[in-house]
Amino acid sequence: MKKIFTAIALLLFAQNGIGQTFYEEDFENTTGNALPAGWQMTNDAGGVWKTGEAADIQTPGLVYGWEHTRAAGLELDTNWYSTQRTDIITSPSIALPSTVFQFLTLQVDLFSLTSNVSTFEYSVNNGATWSNAQYLNISAWDTKFLWIPYAVNAASIKFRFKVVTGAGSSFTGFFMDNLRFYSPYTVDAELYDLQPHEDEVHNYASPGQGVAVKGTVLNRAWTTLNDVVFKYQVDNGPVQTSVHNGINVGSWASTTITHNIPCTVPGMGNYTLKAWIEATGDGDNSDDTLTRGLIGASYLPMKKPVIEERGGTWCGWCVRGSYYNDSLAEIYGDSASIISVHNGDPMAIPAYDSYIGNLPSNGVDVNYFGFPAIVGDRRETADPVNIFYLFREQRTRFGYGDIKIVSASLSGNELTLPVSFKPAIDMSGNYKLVLVITEDSVHKDTLGYQQTNSYSYQLQNIPFFGYQSLPMFIPAADMYYNQVARVVLDGPGGTAGSLPASMTHDVLYTHTYNVTLNPSWNIDHLKAVAFIVDANDNDAILNSTNREIPVALGTGKVKPAPVNMVVYPNPANDVLYLAVSPRKAGEVVIRLMDMTGRTVYQASYNAIAAGKQGFTVPVKEMASGIYNLQVQMEEGTMNEKVNIVN
Question: Which side of the chain, N or C, has fewer Cβ within a 10 Å radius?
């Protein structure tokens, strides 16, 4: 199972039995929601400890960072918000050898727990008394190394986790996985994380393009780790070696090292990156090696995530969804494809709403979040307050290919809209195109268009960007709704036969849609959102595009792009040189953004003359990886992917 680590430094000293493991539990051998043999739970108010996959354990905040197949978690009853409660899960009794150890450790992954108290305790008298309460303060899946002072002459030990939930507190989940009760080796270095990560843009590369290889080394021993050798191999190619001396990693601490030789893929297709570390005297070599897939791609497409928001005018909290949708659109523009899927009001498309509420299993459970909720690429669900996190999280994934809406034609109310897809890799499977028409500034002063407002001074009176000053029912005359889904062609699961079962890289595949526009829609406010889904992966969205209908028809205002933008060298490791040729004098703004959308460099130049102009971007101190170089001027904005290798 995958693990996300935040190591806590802990000095340990073991006299005997070095390297012994006494108990392990990863919950993979459980069935249904049953606990493992010997485990017991105690619940005050109806909460239940369960095992299973993400969708099997219903708890708020479940989805974030869920990379586990099966785990154990606390499922809350319907009164979880208002009930004062204590919930305990206890391990079986674990037999111990007669030799005396100074310390033992336990590894456990936990999910976020806020505004509550959670403790880890142990007992050496079969639960008659409990000792060593340690508070667990965690904000996401995290690995804790818990210190257990060993009691002399104890024949057995058991441990428990206790969760105390305060009335009215915000409980967002308690989960655990990959428990290991053991004593450490004298030397034990683990390679527990390897970059590039799977399914992200960083494990795709054009042939010959350098990709930085980074390893996170965890010291599982009770002595300081000073030196490691970092090696990797791509398929059966040569072994590349990088020596890292003087890293000085304390017990249960970690550090990330970068191999001094970037790896490359020799051509198109799939390759295996095998990486490992070597430390003198390492007592456990089973945790020294990790592998990743590397894929040779003809180019790196710009990834545009799809955010599907579920709300309705009847829902008092759904102003939160509308607000954050508009905020994302304002900041990131068409870099995000945003669709507002309404429920129970005149703007609803029942089939689309039902589909979003019952998405196929990807650990996505929109119904549990209720209204409002947002879904990112149909892979992850969140409350709208986390829309920027969700957008950036999905933006790090590989885009598979470019989707474009190049042109369109209109005859009366009949819109003809061609959608093209050019894959960057060879693809085989059940892929489909989806086309959604959305409308901004939807406004009708009629019944059903007034917005319920739970933030109102007349209801909860909760500060929220001025909504607390508005009435509990905001009049329809004052409401304008954006990103409203108006029609989804052939259903939200996609158009059968829109893409062939096998596609070749750099070949253009086009499907033409015919859409009947409702005369009540304002064509000047319509946008086409097209995306590709993988039906073999629960309709996960691979990439998208969006374009205003007037622009696609050639009747809207199109900003001419700057001409002849040249970026070199690419990859770069010192200075990036940029040449552009604006048609007229004006301001030029240069931004370099990482794959999460964070701006790492920005420079503004006033009164730049027309014609060819040169600029430099210092990248020597920047981390290796793929970045988006954005050049903004009065005539438009241009983007280009650049690879920095340091």
Answer: N
- Separation of alpha carbons 202 and 226, rounded Å: 29
Q: Is residue 199 part of a domain?
A: no
Q: What is the per-residue pLDDT for 231?
A: 98
Helix (H, G, I), strand (E, B) or coil at 496: coil
Q: How far apart are CA 505 and CA 270, in angstroms?
A: 13
d(CA 467, CA 328): 18
Q: Quick one: 32 and 143 in the same domain?
A: yes
Res. 210: pLDDT tops 60: yes
Measured CA to CA, the distance from residue 619 to residue 76 in angstroms comes to 49
d(CA 238, CA 19): 33
The C-alpha atoms of residue 433 and residue 492 are separated, in whole angstroms, by 10
Tokens of 236: 């059966």
- Using CB atoms within 10 Å of the CB of residue 154, give its burial: 0 to 12 exposed, 13 to 18 middle, 19+ buried: middle
Q: What is the CATH classification number for the domain harbouring 413? A: 2.60.40.10
Task: Judge whether residue 617 has pLDDT over 80.
Answer: yes
Radius of gyration of the chain (CA): 28
**One domain for residues 232 and 145:** no
- Rounded CA separation 245/229 (Å): 8
Which token pair is 194? 């390897």
**110, exposed or middle or buried, with CB in 10 Å at 0-12, 13-18, 19+?**
buried
Instruction: Convert the pLDDT of each residue in 144-190 to its tens digit.
Output: 777 777 655 688 889 898 887 665 544 556 788 888 888 888 899 99
pTM (two decimals): 0.71
Q: What is the pLDDT of residues 519-575, one digit of tens each?
A: 999 999 999 999 999 999 999 999 999 999 998 888 876 545 445 677 877 778 778
Q: Check if the beta carbon of residue 53 is closer than 8 Å to that of residue 72.
A: no
Task: Identify the burial level of 536 via C-beta atoms within 10 angstroms of its C-beta, where 0-12 means exposed, 13-18 middle and 19 or more buried.
Answer: exposed
CA distance 357 to 249: 47
Write the CB contacts of 458 (distance below 8 Å, at least 6 apart in sequence). 471, 472
| CB distance 596 to 616 below 8 Å | no
423 and 277 in a common domain: no
Domain harbouring 602, CATH code: 2.60.40.4070
Structure tokens at 19: 């390297």
Strands (E) in 524-624, as ranges, are: 526-534, 540-548, 563-568, 575-581, 586-593, 599-608, 613-618
> For residue 335, what are the CA distances in angstroms to 61, 340, 378, 549?
26, 16, 17, 17
Considering only 335-339, 406-410, 637-641, which range has the smallest mean pLDDT?
Answer: 637-641
> Token digits for 293?
């897939």
Give a three-class secondary structure readout of 4-62: CCCCCCCCCCCCCCCCCEEEEECCCCCCCCCCCCCCEEEECCCCEEEEECHHHCCCCCC
Kindly give, in sequence order, each residue whose CB lies less than 8 Å from that of residue 171, ignoring residues fewer than 6 positions away: 59, 60, 76, 80, 81, 113, 114, 115, 116, 165
Residues 6+ apart with CB under 8 A from 195: 202, 212, 213, 214, 215
Which of 271, 296, 321 is the last residue in one of the domains?
A: 296
pLDDT-above-90 percentage for the chain: 46
Q: What angle do CA 545, 546, 550 make, to 5 degrees?
A: 145
